[in-house]
């Protein structure tokens, strides 16, 4: 996505939010056939800026980060399994790298670590998972 397209998306997100005038913005909760909301799509494609615009600079719509699609994935998991490091970093930073365990595990029981191994995403990606998410580390040790 180039800069001109980003500006259009930014303006569209702002227009939707201004039109809604509510704490919960229904347009941001709408799902596609896969159950993905706009934050799912933005995160899985690596658009960290768009995630930030949707969630809000003051985290006004942070509840969107916990919504799951038909595969049991929230936007954080979607960013991780699609190897979108910037979106993953932004979304994990929303919770000060202390995401609740349920946000790190798919409905089928797979963790972000399972997803990384299955897709062979080795290297510096696994290190931030262990250092940033102590709950995941504890979960894996207790497993």
Automatic annotation (TrEMBL):
GO cellular component: plasma membrane
Subcellular location: Cell membrane
Key words, A-Z: Membrane, Transmembrane, Transmembrane helix
Topological relation to the membrane, as annotated: Peripheral membrane protein
Transmembrane segments: 121-140
Superkingdom assignment: Eukaryota
Protein known as: Uncharacterized protein
Classification via InterPro entries: Ankyrin_rpt-contain_sf
